[in-house]
């Protein structure tokens, strides 16, 4: 019930291409969905987040698409660059706490490699 | 503005020992959360503190505990260490843990159990 399923586990994209990572959740109480980027030896850094009242949110080259009826959301990285090579995690939180008081439930991560 | 600071960065312990990890949140942040990151289980929520009170706890045994001080700094303690406790322990802070507030993570403490 608390799971967030993330795919693919790994992804190789050519420079300039579009990277797409997908997540699905089961708990209908989730209503905050952030994406985190993690480089080796570093902690996760918040990239972008969305709430279910919107279907899409864009920040620079990063876009979240959200499908409430299907309980799915995805991250699109446009014009992917070698510097985007990292591990990406989707996450979800059950209420307006934004993941603080109730904790974030994370997907297992996607290892993204952008080939020059 | 300084980020979330975790100390130490690396720690090696043996089975049966106990360990204390420290986290200093971003100045002004009063909510501190702890997560365990392992290759097999990924990132898992341990617990969250606000105003020196634990508000929520994840599905971990009682060997994992924490506390928060009046200056919002937090510590987590793991007693009777097991091999499976080897992990990266991450601390995250936010203003109050409520509303549309991003959580900022530290770079973690890498704990290795021999």
The backbone outline of chain B, from C-alpha atoms, is globular
Morphology call of chain A: globular
Please state roughly what percent of the residues of chain A sit in beta strands, choosing from under 5%, 5-15%, 15-25%, 25-35%, 35-45% or over 45%.
Answer: over 45%
Order of secondary-structure elements of chain B: EEEEEEEEEEE
Largest interface: A-B, 27 and 29 residues
Spans of chain B of at least 5 consecutive residues whose pLDDT stays below 50 are none
SS-based class of chain B? mainly beta
Number of helices of chain B: 0
Largest sheet of chain A: 6 strands, mixed
* Low-confidence residue ranges of chain A: none
Mean pLDDT of chain B: 94
Helix residue percentage of chain A: under 10%
Q: Give the radius of gyration of chain B.
A: 13 Å
Radius of gyration of chain A: 13 Å
Strand content of chain B: over 45%
What is the distance, rounded to the nearest whole angstrom, between the alpha carbons of the first and last residues of chain B? 37 Å
The quaternary state of the protein chains shown equals heterodimer
**How many strands appear in the DSSP assignment of chain B?**
11
Distance between the termini of chain A: 40 Å
Helix content of chain B: under 10%
Describe the overall structure.
The complex is a heterodimer of chains A (116) and B (114). By secondary structure, chain A is mostly beta strands. Chain A contains no helices and eleven strands. In chain A, strands 2, 4, 5, 9, 10 and 11 form a six-stranded mixed sheet that branches. Chain A has a five-stranded antiparallel sheet with strand order 1-3-8-7-6, with no helix packed on it. The termini of chain A are far apart. With 114 residues, chain B is mostly beta strands. In chain B, strands 2, 4, 5, 6, 9, 10 and 11 form a seven-stranded mixed sheet that branches. In chain B, strands 1-3-8-7 form a four-stranded antiparallel sheet, with no helix packed on it.
């Amino acid at each position: 019930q608390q799971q967030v399923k993330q795919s693919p586990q790994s992804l190789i994209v050519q420079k300039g291409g579009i990277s797409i990572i997908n997540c699905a959740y089961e708990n209908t109480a989730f209503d905050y969905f952030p994406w985190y980027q993690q480089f080796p030896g570093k902690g996760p850094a918040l990239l972008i987040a969305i709430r279910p009242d919107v279907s899409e949110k864009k920040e620079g080259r990063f876009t979240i698409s959200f499908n409430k009826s299907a309980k799915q959301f995805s991250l699109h990285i446009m014009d992917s660059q070698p510097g985007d090579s990292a591990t990406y995690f989707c996450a979800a939180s059950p209420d307006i706490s934004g993941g603080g008081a109730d904790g974030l439930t994370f997907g297992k991560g996607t290892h993204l490699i952008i080939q020059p | 503005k300084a980020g979330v600071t975790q100390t130490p960065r690396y720690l090696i312990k043996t089975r049966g020992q106990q360990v204390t990890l420290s986290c200093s949140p971003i100045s002004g942040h009063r909510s501190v959360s702890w997560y365990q990151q392992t290759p097999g289980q990924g990132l898992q929520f341990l617990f969250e503190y606000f105003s020196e009170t634990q508000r929520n706890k994840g599905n971990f045994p009682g060997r994992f505990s924490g506390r928060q001080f009046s200056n919002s700094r937090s510590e987590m303690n793991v007693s009777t260490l097991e091999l499976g406790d080897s992990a990266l322990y991450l601390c995250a802070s936010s203003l109050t843990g409520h509303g549309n507030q991003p959580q900022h993570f530290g770079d973690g403490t890498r704990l290795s159990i021999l």
